[in-house]
Specification:
- It contains nine helices and 17 strands.
- By secondary structure, the chain is of the alpha+beta class.
- A seven-stranded mixed β-sheet has the order 1-10-15-14-13-11-12.
- The N terminus and C terminus are likely disordered.
Length: 459
């Protein structure tokens, strides 16, 4: 008999026997949380054994109540007219009381286990949560360039990139994006050569251009490009974004895989002494947000690390749900990319820089890529594989198989802007909440949120 009980207990553990850790069969609001049966996963093995015993106790008690009710309500029988029915009825009443006590003890054990499961679930969620953060304290341009260039080059070498192309630095403001003056470009090249040393990985491509084919595929063309056909090649995307003429600028130093447009590495810095724009100021409806002092992304369930660790990873592109050509989230997108790429191995794809720097007219609006993204009709085939990050690099199209979407949050405060981050995969068939992105600004900054300017001078 004892062996039979042990076998039944083991079988119940293996198969997940029906549990009383479940909601009553009534409609309950989604806000009350998942059905209690889902809490079983957060119990320890010994707690699961205790749960099964508690369930058995409840079942045995209920059976005893049923039997006791039968005896308590039993009437005299014609076959046994002399039977002491009163004693039988009393026995039945005692059985009912015993059964009720057993059910109460079992249910109390289940409630205790449910409380422990809730505590253990909260702890498990807290253990999974990740917070990615960055601070952007203004510093001189020379200092920001030195640390940013070194950080990105070292990341490229660590990821075995054989060739790193430098095509200059681009200046972006509300009027558009254009190549910086030659003296600044030469200054950066000298710093790159100094850092590169005897690695000999940095080179300046001649007649460099980005070509977007009619079918959506792309390629970078330059003199002697065929000599690098078998190399892992990254393009240095260096950009200085200046939202206004008075505040600091944002220096973005990135390395982009030329085959997949995946961001290999990125460094951001706030610059206290940005150079003047080489062109005359132009009227523009584009509003760029100011540079935040700090930013943080809270990943409540460690989803980013989980997605990055998939055997066949997704290739993500960052989108802002309210993006308009007149309110390009250029600064926010760069900060979001920095938080994700700088703290995880998630594959992030970026076509925003090449769109601004190499497509269309010599000076392109920072919001042009937002308009282009909305009007595209081409789509990747459903069975398209994500491009590889190294080794054989075939030409790939300008599309990804997943997105990180940043939607404005209603609770943004006076000195901060918050976005709710969601991961979309496979033609938006799956949508998963990641957590909030919060950008904190100086009290004197002016932030344009959802296309509306918000004066933070305390008017």
């Amino acid at each position: 008999m004892q062996i039979r009980k042990l076998v039944l207990l083991a079988l119940a553990l293996a198969t997940g026997a029906s549990s009383l850790l479940s909601e009553p069969e009534t409609e309950t609001p989604a806000a009350e949380g998942p059905v209690l049966n889902e809490l079983r996963a957060y119990l320890t093995p010994s707690q699961r054994v205790k749960l099964i015993r508690a369930e058995q106790m409840v079942q045995e008690g209920e059976s005893e109540i049923v039997a006791g009710t039968h005896y308590a309500e039993r009437a005299p029988s014609r076959l046994k007219p002399d039977e002491d029915i009163k004693a039988v009825n009393e026995r039945g009443k005692k059985m009912i009381l015993t059964g009720q006590e057993r059910v109460a003890r079992g249910e109390a054990m289940i409630e205790e286990l449910r409380g422990k499961a809730l505590e253990q679930r909260e702890q498990a969620v807290a253990d999974q949560a990740r917070t990615y953060s960055v601070e952007l304290r203004p510093e001189p341009l020379s200092q920001a360039l030195g640390s940013g260039l070194r950080q990105v080059l070292e990341a490229c070498w660590e990821k075995a990139y054989d060739s790193i192309l430098y095509d200059g630095i681009y200046l972006t403001d509300a009027a558009g994006t254009e190549l910086a003056p030659a003296d600044l470009r030469n200054q950066i090249y000298d710093r790159l050569v100094e850092i590169d040393g005897t690695n000999f990985t940095v080179s300046v491509p001649i007649d460099f251009e980005f070509i977007l084919e009619a079918d959506g595929r792309h390629r970078f063309d330059f003199t002697n490009a065929e000599a690098l056909a078998d190399d892992a090649v990254a393009l240095l995307a260096i950009e200085l974004i200046r939202p206004d003429s008075d505040g600091p600028a944002l220096l973005a130093v990135s390395a982009i895989d030329t085959a997949s447009l995946q961001v290999v590495a990125q460094s951001l810095a706030a610059v206290s002494d940005p150079p003047d724009s080489p062109s005359e100021a132009a009227e523009s409806e584009v509003r760029l947000s100011p540079i935040p002092e700090s930013a943080s992304l809270v990943d409540h369930r460690g989803l980013i690390e989980s997605l990055a660790g998939l055997e066949t990873p997704y290739l993500f592109e960052i989108h802002f749900a309210d993006e308009e050509p007149s309110s390009a989230h250029l600064v926010e997108r760069l900060v979001a990319t920095q938080l994700v790429v700088g703290h995880s191995e998630l594959a992030v794809f970026d076509r925003a820089f090449v769109t601004r720097a190499y497509l269309g007219a010599e000076t392109a609006s920072p919001g042009a890529e937002a308009e282009a993204a909305r009007t595209e009709e081409a789509r990747p085939p459903e069975d398209a594989a994500a491009p590889e990050a190294s080794g054989d690099r075939p030409e790939v199209d300008l599309f990804t198989n997943a997105s990180l979407v940043f939607a404005p949050a209603a609770e943004s405060g006076d000195d901060e802007t918050q976005f709710i981050v969601r991961a979309l995969a496979g033609e938006q068939e799956r949508v998963v909440d990641v957590g909030p992105l919060t950008l904190a600004y100086p009290a004197s900054a002016t932030v344009a949120a959802s296309g509306q300017e918000d004066d933070r001078d305390g008017e």
